[in-house]
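Lab notes, practical 5.
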Amino acid sequence: MASAAEQLAASINFGALSKATELKKRIWFTLGALVIYRLGTYIPSPGIDPVVMQQIFEQQRGGILGMFNMFAGGALGRMTIFALNIMPYISAAIIMQLLTAVSPTLEALKKEGEAGRKKINQYTRYGTVLLASVQAYGIAVGLESASGPSGSAVLDPGLYFRFTMVVTLTGGTMFLMWLGEQITQRGVGNGISLIIFSGIVANLPLAMVSTLELGRTGALSAVFIIVLLIMVVVVITFIVFMERAQRRIIIQYPKRQVGNKMFGGESTHLPMKLNPSGVIPLIFASSLLLMPLTVAGFSGGAGPEWMTWVTAFLGRGTAGFLTIYVGLILFFTFFYTTIVFNPADTADNLKKHGGFIPGIRPGRNTEAHLRFILLRLTTVGAIYLSLVALLPEILISRFAVPFFFGGTSLLIVVSVTMDTVGQIHSHLLAHQYEGLIKKAKLKGRRG
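Output from the prediction step:
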């Protein structure tokens, strides 16, 4: 984590940053919004005994709910108003993207431009309300049967408690969805990713203390802790290398004569990232796995038989969990890549503008060539994401290492950091260009 922070500090020109007023406003807005989010993760939901909830979650720390709690920034373990976090919105976005890929009506709506995008976003919000309500009701029912050494987790179970939980948790999710959109529009970086990022980073000190405590009690040896820290640095370096890796395809443009002058003839390149889907497949796969287990984890074995079977089959480190988790990551890697990069559209645009790949005919041959390259890149990217996702499962099941040192959390932190730094650089470049244009206009007026 230290190396990522050093890269962040080294890559930003703080002198230029101090002069970019608009960028400073965006950064302060982003920090303020994240502070509001962190404060909300400590506001308890009504009707919950926090002491009993802490006791229950201590028993679930190493399970799938521990992963959910990491994404929620600890809000689930405290059962606060942001306990569901942003996961219902992510699940609704997954469903809408799947429907857009198979529904001609939604696909046509997507091609309408800004108006179509707004309608799809509105449908996603409706889906978020529905999913959040269902999950909140399931949590409320599960909590009514949950108990710890100090008693029941719910102070006054019944219909009124279920209603207040649905309203509170659904309202919290909708507020976070709105807050994420505001960060994206008025701040710096992707708001949804930054919310998850801040939740993980906020729990890093606790994870470090937990690891050192395991070393003090003798559960982990000092040598293993040192090896673990070295491994964290190696994993961060590996993630940065893989996220920046890309295949550059040379694009040639023919020369053309206009009057007595020759134009064109230059060559450029088409960058194709090794992992164009980023951290999205991991978040999507995790959110889908969390939906059926949110309630099952709170039942404490008192629920129906199918719930007990689901909890056992998808337990942390089991073959069923690992198989489904990796399968979902592979699926969403290929699925999301086809959404962000379309070889047919790229080949068509190159043909319209006279560009071509040397040695490849324009049109269908270019499309087939791009599709072949994309398939190989996506395969490597999917394997890379699967390995990163399996790392925390091995560390947790074999060595009882806190989940925050796993590959998934590191990937999210590093990817969001790189994306945010990239956007800050873009704003700084735009500010510098504006300054140059103003100077040029002043010189022109003086002349």
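Observations recorded by the TA: The CA atoms of residues 432 and 447 lie 23 Å apart. Residues 2-446 form a domain with the Preprotein translocase SecY subunit fold (CATH 1.10.3370.10).
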